[in-house]
Structures are given as C-alpha cells and as structure tokens.
Design a protein that fits this description.
single chain, mainly beta, 7-stranded mixed β-sheet, 11 strands
C-alpha cells in the first residue's frame, strides 16, 4: 500500500506560480511511476504530468507543456509539480497518483493506469 498526501495548493493570480508536493508513505519510493492529474468542477479528471521512477523520463499534457515541471526526489519519497505562468483554466483539484512499474523508464498517462491516489489539493487561479 502507498499513501499519498498532496500539499502546496492555494489561491494565486494569473501569471503566478505554485509548487505542489506529494509525499508518499511507503518506505521505498523506488519502483513507482508517479503522475499528477487535475479535476475541475463538472469535468472529468485529466492527465497533467507523469514521471518514471528511474531516469526522470517525463511527459506533459499539451495544455501545461512549457509551464509545468514534474520532478521527484526518491530519497525523500516526494514528487513535485512546479507550476508557472498559471492561468484561470488551471483552476482545479490536483491529485498525485502512483503505480508500481517493472519498467524503470516508463511513465503512465491514463487515470485507469494508476493504483494509488492522494486526497487532492485545490489550486485556484484568479483572473
């Protein structure tokens, strides 16, 4: 079992930045590919960014490419999402997710591919 706890959400103006953190409870973070998703009111949960557990292979949704950066610190069991140049359409609850992977360089982009989810953290971007 992996428990995930997100933090770092809040209210920010358009063009501002936030850094989300996700802490994993498991003793070892290795072997788990990680992802960030978001869900706005009335919309389905959507993929934002993903990272493999070794090598730092990353992938981004087109809507955040060039503005968001996903990273991880396996020694601290943390994954991060640096969000810059925020827009009102980035407003959503952001979720951290984890899935065990036998393939060290693989990342995952589908909601159904992840086994563990955090409780979410609210990000609100005012115009």
């Amino acid at each position: 079992q992996v428990q995930l706890v997100e933090s770092g959400g809040g209210l920010v103006q358009t063009g501002g930045s936030l850094r989300l953190s996700c802490a994993a409870s498991r003793r070892t973070f290795s072997g788990y590919a990680m992802g960030w998703f978001r869900q706005a009111p009335g919309k389905e949960r959507e993929f934002v960014a993903a990272i493999s557990w070794v090598g730092g292979n990353t992938y981004y949704a087109d809507s955040v490419k060039g503005r968001f950066t996903i990273s991880r610190d396996n020694a601290k069991n943390n994954v991060y999402l640096q969000m810059n140049s925020l827009k009102p359409e980035d407003t959503a609850v952001y979720y951290c997710a984890a899935v065990f992977s036998w393939h060290s360089g693989t990342y995952y982009t589908g909601v159904d591919e992840y086994d563990y989810w955090g409780q979410g953290t609210q990000v609100t971007v005012s115009s």
